Structures are given as C-alpha cells and as structure tokens.
Amino acid sequence: MRKINVKWLDYFKSMEEASDSFILKMSAFLISEMEFRFGTNIDWSRMYLLYPPDGKSLSEETDLSNGKKNSKLVCYIRSKASCEDYCGYLIWYEEESNEIVKPSDNVANTNLIFMWKEWYQNSNFIQSLPNKKTKKRIIFNNLKLKIYSQLSSMPHEGKFAITLFDIEDIEKVSEALESARGKWNTQTDEARATNNPSLEQGYCHTITFDGVEDNIAYWYIDAGSAHDGIHEYLLRQLSDSDIKIKSVEIQVL
Question: What is the rounded CA–CA span in Å between residue 10 and residue 130?
Fold first, then answer.
C-alpha cells in the first residue's frame, strides 16, 4: 500500500491543532472513501480540505438513534487547480467509549470510526480531480499467488480478475470463495453469540461470478462490514487450494 499523504490536511491540522495520529487516521479514511466513491487514484498533493474559520463548522452532537456522542465537521474537498467543491459532513467517534474525541487527542491506540455524509457536489468536480498515474503493484507477498492492484486500499465493492491456467476451474474458484466467505461469517456469528468482540470481523455480503473476458474470469465482491481483512482471507483460501491460478488483480467497480 502507498504512503498516506497528510499534507493536504495542513489547514485542518493548523486550525484544530490536530495530533499526528489523528491526521493520519483522518487522511487514510478520506483518501480511501473518496477514491472508492469516484473510482480513481487521486493525486492528493494537488488537493486540499477547507471550511469556514467561524468556529461553527466543527461541532459535537449525540446520535439520537444510539445515544453515541460524536464530532461533526462540515467541510469542502477541492482541487488546487479548480474551484469545484465536494462538500459533506465528516463524522467521527470512538468505538468502545462514549467520549468525544478531539482532533488534538492522541488516537494512536484508539479505535476511531469515521463516516462521510455527502451534502453536495459541484457538477464538474469529478472532471477537476487530478488523477495519479499508478502501476500495478504486487501485494500480499505472503501468499503463493501473484496478487496485483493499482488501488491504495481494498474496495468495499470490487472485483477479483483471476487468470486461470484452466478456464474450466471457474466452478472450483466459485466454490472456494463461497466456502471462505461462509467460514468468515461463521466466526462473526460465533463472536456475537458468545459476546466475544475479539472475534468480531464483520460480514462479507456477497461473492458473485461476473463472467469471462479474454480468458480472465471475474468475481464481484461486496465486502460489507468485513472490509478490513476479507480480501486477503479470500485470496489465502485460493492460494492454499489445488486450483492452478496464474494471477489475480483486485479492481474497483
């Protein structure tokens, strides 16, 4: 995975005296969220985040649905080469406690949850995004398979583009992926049944065969709440199987 750019958040860091650990987690979330939403690798050195310095953009509130205290920032994301904005609400809260987390807090060992809610998007915002040219990189080097990706993070909804030595093995791949998904979800079932949060890993929603093109077979992956770790887990099951696979590329939709 590429190094996380934090310089584009310098305005926020200066205004809120934010800690390095907070900025790192905030940037990692926003980069992943925006590149997933817009389906492209963005050159973040040419982007910045801004908001009115009126003291009203950052607020604290309570989620009436669950009583959870959270912080909300009304902000704009913009390219340095354009005045086209993407505006929304960045919300964050601490997973285990019900305490407000300030940007100045050290959150290195805090399970900080971020969410993004869109407000509006200027009509030409996507066209104004500075794309970053990337090469396919080999990832998950600990697996026996060759796994490639151009993405900076694993997509919530994406595809496995699998090049097989024998295209007749499509059914075997589907069965292996579905079996792995079932095992993953079963552990989450057990975690919730025994109230053991250490085993909680979310649910992978669906894995669907999506056709063949030029001898490459595609599977659609909806990672659901299992986004953190599910891709490597699925690929490990394929790596440990007897299916002969030439390579896998992880793609965004």
Answer: 19
137-252 maps to CATH 1.25.40:
no
**Which two structure tokens, joined as six digits, stand for 152?**
């900076």
Q: Is residue 250 classed as helix, strand or coil in its secondary structure?
A: strand
Number of H helices, E strands in the chain: 5, 11
Distances from the Cα of 183 to the Cα of 37, 187, 193, 209, 235, angstroms? 29, 6, 15, 19, 13
Q: For 188, how many CA atoms within 13 A lie in the half-sphere containing its CB?
A: 15
Residue linked to tokens 């993405």:
151
Distance CA 159, CA 162 (A): 9
Cα of first residue to Cα of last residue in the chain, in angstroms, is 19
Token digits of residue 185: 């979800």
* Model confidence pLDDT, tens digit, residues 116-126: 999 998 888 88
Per-residue pLDDT reduced to its tens digit, 146-181: 999 877 778 888 899 999 999 999 999 999 999 999
Overall pTM > 0.70? no
Helical (H) or strand (E) element with 3: none
| Three-state SS at 246 | strand
Residue 243 CA to residue 206 CA, distance in Å, equals 21
Alpha helices in 89-229 (DSSP H): 125-128, 170-193
Tell me the two tokens of residue 217: 């077979």
Hey, where are the domains in the chain? Answer: 7-128, 137-252
- Cα dihedral 20, 108, 47, 150 sign: positive
